[in-house]
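Subject: two folds for Thursday's group meeting

Dear M.,

Sorry for the delay on this. The cluster queue was jammed most of the week, so I only got both jobs back this morning. I'm pasting them in the order they finished. Each block is the input sequence followed by the predicted structure tokens. Could you check whether the formatting survives your parser before we put anything on slides? The first protein is the one we discussed after the seminar.
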Amino acid sequence: MKILIHIFFLFFVKSSVANYINYPQAEISVIREINGFNFTNESFEVSDDITAAIKQGKASELVKFFDTKVIIKIINQEDVLSKSQAEANLKYFFEKHTVKNFTASRVSSVNNSMQYLTGSLETSSGKFRVSVLIRRNLISQFRIETDND
């Protein structure tokens, strides 16, 4: 029933709005979000890209998703860093700990505005837990902690 209501709403709003606004633009804005449900899944694509960058151990790819300031914790060192500082710290970590594999164990979303990604990072020197907080499709917090299993 909800699906039928959404389809009707999409059709009605799209045709009404199209009379006042350029049709393709109206279609994009209507389909983008209804009742907090994101039809484009942009945030999930971002987490996939972040996961891929961690798997490759590429700080330069990962930093593309960082906010202007980001909370970084690498093992026992935690600080609020700029993008360039964060990239230098991650690059140093990935050079010391060559990535063998990364497995995302959980991706959860809150109101399509925040996403939390956790996973297990296997490197040449051991295993680490990784947790990432994503707000508005930008990483605001990135943690790499030793895995004490």
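Second protein, same layout:
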Amino acid sequence: MKPETMLTTGISRAEERLPRWMLALGALATIVAFVAGQPHFAAGFVLGAGLALVNYFWLHQAVEHLMATGKERLPRLLFAKFLLRYPLVIGGVYLLYRTGWVSVPGLLAGLFVPVGGVLLESFVQIREGLRSP
């Protein structure tokens, strides 16, 4: 196998695993918060993680489309999603802060689920790198 092909295969596998890491981390942290007797925090965490995952998937979809087509322009729907990512998150955080429906610290912690997923995937990459000759 060529080195370029091995690298491409490794990146593809990492790309497939990353959303699973994020979902697993979000589910685990939510369960831990409920077991610890913090349902208000858990609700905020679930909403924050949900916003973060939607943000990740929309960004991934836009980048994937640009790379696959080689065109410089995105379709309007993808462009709208790309533009709405941060206003959606900021508006959601503000609304929930003002209403007090969920824990704002939980919501903010949930927004960092993709960071945790990337960290877990980096450990997998390090392990695979140490195994290869």
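Two things I noticed about the second structure. Helices lie at 3-35, 39-69, 76-99, 104-110, 113-131. The chain is about 85% helix and 0% strand.

Cheers,
T.
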